[in-house]
Design brief:
Layout lengths: L3 E10 L2 E10 L5 E5 L15 E3 L1 E6 L20 H14 L2 H17 L2 E8 L15 H13 L2 E8 L21 H17 L3 E2 L2 E2 L7 H14 L5 E5 L3 H11 L3 H8 L6 E5 L5 H9 L3 E4 L1 H6 L7 H5 L17 H7 L6 E4 L9 H16 L13 H17 L14 E4 L11 H10 L7 E6 L2 E4 L7 H17 L3
Parallel strand pairs: 5-6, 6-7, 7-8, 7-9, 10-11, 11-12, 12-13
Antiparallel strand pairs: 1-2, 2-3, 4-14, 14-15, 15-16
Amino acid sequence: MSAGSLFADHALLPGGWARDVRLDWDATGRLTAVQPGATPEPGMPRAEGPLLPGMPNLHSHAFQRGMAGLTEYRAEAQDSFWSWRSLMYRFALRLRPAQLEAIAFGLYVDMLEAGYTAVCEFHYVHHDTDGHPYADDAELARALLRAAQRAGIGLTLLPVLYQTSGFGGAAPAEGQRRFIRSTASMLRLLETLRPACEAQGARLGLAPHSLRAVPPEALRDALAGLAAQDATAPIHIHIAEQTKEVDDCLAWSGQRPVAWLLDHAPVDARWCLVHATHMDADEYRRAAATGAVAGLCPTTEANLGDGLFDLPRWTAGDGDGEADPAARHGASSAASGAGRRRGGGAWGIGSDSHACVDAAEELLMLEYGQRLVRRQRNVAATAAQPEVATALWLSAVGGGAQASGRALGGLAVGQQADMLVLDAAHPVLAGLEAPQMLSAHVFAAGRQRPLAHAYVAGRKTVDAGHHPLRAEAQRAFVQARRELLAGGA
């Protein structure tokens, strides 16, 4: 990695669009200067179109990319998340380390070409196919680290604690045998992985899978053990994704899932509440006030029939769109303010099961879902930012950075130089002003991906729309999927 600089005629900064912006970064890939109104030096590299902050993908199950498109048939009279989950378990039970690495490598290359420059990997397939640990207990996690490093994408690795099949300590199902870990085993795994993560600049956190999969005492002990290792580590949890989960939690505890979590765990800005689809008004208010990020995965939530998150209720505040001045756990005030209206909640996007891998399409699905429910347009716009695509992009970058636990909060000094260049010559974008180009990218490009370049920590990973290892990654992915399907997954 080396220091560098770039000049952009138009750049989307945390406070909005700016003209004639010079950006400089150091040998670690951190931005040292972001100067609007600058004059380019002779020979300085110049962005060929509007410059955007790279998008963090805050929720990924990489192995599920291998089964994308393969569950779109009716298996039961009323298919649901739960029938889909049974098919997913069968797929997960056949996965080998080399296949996981190949699928993840292909996925991460695709993410970079689709506008994601970092990913939070919610990793719960831990053991061999018989449910016993590998000789190297971290073998599958290391496969993900290698895949991310090879692709050149930033990584937050979130090993998943998974112990039970339902509320009240129900015994794990046979299909979950590869996921199960004791709390002590999980804390040892984190200690094992920490040096490898630090060596490649990856962030390490913890993901209690869900309240149904982690009993209260295990959640308490895991959080205490994590705090002893790294008190600032990100914590992600699936919660309130399905109405059945809400009903089961009420039957078990007398409380809804988010309410129970807020009453029994130290939820704060380190936390990402993945999905959080089914909350009541009090849960929306209380959860947003903690500073936690809502991890929204609109295309997966649509694919699984989960329901719709109430975005305006989550972001309700004074609505001025100004940055929250409080820096949170290593993210700059610019990063945190971009993801959160003052008094409202932060949010970001993830591709989850990877039925779709496209940052712009996730934002389109999020906005369109809100429009369908409310029967109105331009729901995510604010008084401060009437351009819907700009408002969406900045909020998702800020929330994704916070959930990643990394300095990915946009084009600001101290943040990592993760950047995207829109292809100004693309027919969908040509002749438009910079904010209109972003709007066309999100709402009018379909799956054409009018992205010219992507940078991660100042290093160009995508050039002219293509990753240099695309062909190799695609071959490895196709071969891994062929092997899995030949095994009857």
